[in-house]
Amino acid sequence: MEDCVNKNEAGIPASPCVRNCCLDPQDICLGCFRHLDEITQWQSMSVKRKKDTLRLCASRKQAHEEHYS
């Protein structure tokens, strides 16, 4: 997973936003798979928390694809 994370010049994980925001009933964006709270807090998150959030996003995306495939 670490190799797949987009980072800026300082090595900070980039936002996974794909500019396709559509929230499901649990407030999960179906574009980037972040929860609404994670979206609004992204800029103030530590690097560790951003990495943890990206792992959660990957897990949510996989579950979504398995459920709807």
Describe the structure.
The protein is mainly alpha-helical. The chain has one domain. 41% of the residues lie in helices and 0% in strands. It is built from 2 helices and no strands. The chain has helices at residues 36-41, 47-68. The longest helix has 22 residues, at 47-68. The protein is globular. The chain starts with 35 loop residues before the first helix and ends with a helix. The mean pLDDT is 91.
Task: Provide a brief overview of the structure.
Helices cover 41% and strands 0% of the residues. The chain is an all-alpha fold.
Order of helices and strands: HH
Structural class: mainly alpha
Query: Counting H and I runs of at least 4 residues, what is the number of helices?
Result: 2
> Residue ranges: pLDDT <50 for 5 or more in a row?
none
State the helical fraction. 40-55%
The rounded Rg comes to: 12 Å
Beta percentage is under 5%
Number of strands: 0
- How many structurally independent domains? 1
Distance between the termini: 22 Å
Task: Work out the oligomeric state of the chains in this entry.
Answer: single chain
Report mean pLDDT, rounded to a whole number.
91
Give a short account of the largest sheet.
none
**Rough outline:** globular
